[in-house]
Amino acid sequence: MADLPSLKIGNLEINPPIIQGGMGIRVSGANLASAVANTGCAGVIASTGIGLFEEYKGNLLIFNGESLRKEIRKARAMSKGIIGVNILFALTDYENLVKVSVEEKVDMIISGAGLPLDLPKFLNGQDIKLIPVVSSAKALALIIKRWKGRYNKLPDAVIVEGYKAGGHLGYSAESLADNTAMELEDIVSQVVELANSFEQKIPVIAAGGIFDGGDIAKFLKLGASGVQMATRFVCTEECDAHINFKQAYINAKEGDITIIKSPVGLPGRVINSPFVEKIKQGLTVPFKCSYKCLKTCDTEKAPYCIAKVLSNASNGKLDQSFVFAGSNAYKCKEIISVKALVENLKNELSSALNSIPAMN
Predict the structure, then answer these.
(1) pLDDT tens digit sequence for 34-62
(2) Which of 18, 76, 102, 197 measures 20 to 30 Å from 260, CA to CA?
(3) SS3 of residue 269 by DSSP
(4) Which residues have C-beta within 8 Å of that of residue 90, sequence separation ≥ 6?
């Protein structure tokens, strides 16, 4: 197998050039992140709901931060590789989780679900790579303007997430319904042009619907430096979610991947189920909010608690929840080790790079 290109982010070298996507409420924790990091890829802990918040009665702000700290240390004990944390800007305890990640000296902080315009102010001189997630070149331009003007810093890399991703999506429900959302290939091309316009070029990482080595090669040929993959890592032995969660991917057919309107005001891609059908028909599950986890959630109007539903999912209670998944989740056919998955991807990528002509 020929040498594969590395994803270089400052002094970090990721080879193969894959970042494992963060999957919230205990789908990608220390077990998955450390296993991925041990292959040379970058492992990512999703900070959202990383602790058993639904069973906790004390100060949730402190609990969330300490739960993340514990998970980072657990991952570090299991791997010497690259460990990052994904922190949604929409979280009410966003700043607290960023501060914990900086204190624990993670390798990278990935932040989307809004524009993390002031993320650099938390670094305190630490060499931690800051990677915003965007869905357009315009969004990246706004972040660059703010970071450059206020902090004299460029993003260390940028993740460009397309509409085929799983979970909450940064696209309007209308554009998804009428197929007018811009294709990831086109967004990546625009972002690469912007990212390469600086003397210190910003590595671009493509995400959303990337499933195999051929997909990775396609985006590398378009000028991306690497990719982020989440869905593909669910069906691994080390993924932190319950076996029922993984089995939902294995059992899914192409027509089972569907879009719902999340209580937080965003469309979300899920695997269809009786619970999803009930939601689409207007099912409401009354609740008293104990978490106040998301800035965008109106607890007075929300038909159900998204945090509780996603907690049920990762715990395997699929009759009371839905499973977030990318558009290609139905292609997952078996549960294998992270090591075996990455070896397969490396072989596919090597073969594809040798066969795909360069794109202009």
Answers:
(1) 999 999 999 999 998 888 877 777 888 88
(2) 18
(3) strand
(4) 113, 114, 264, 294, 295, 296
Residues 159-164, mean pLDDT to the nearest whole number: 92
To the question of pTM greater than 0.90 for the whole model, the response is yes
Q: At what angle do helices 213-221 and 338-355 cross, to 10 degrees?
A: 50
What CA–CA distance (Å, rounded) separates 166 from 241? 15
Same domain, yes or no, for 135 and 225? yes
Helix or strand (DSSP H, E) at 46: strand 42-46
d(CA 94, CA 99): 9
Neighbours of 223 (CB within 10 A): 16
| Residue 4 and residue 17 in contact, taking contact as beta carbons nearer than 8 Å | yes
251 in the same domain as 141: no
Residue type, 245: F
**Which residues, in sequence order, are CB contacts of 186 under 8 Å at separation 6+?**
none
> Quick one: 159 and 28 in the same domain?
yes
The range of the structural domain enclosing residue 195 comes to 7-240+334-355
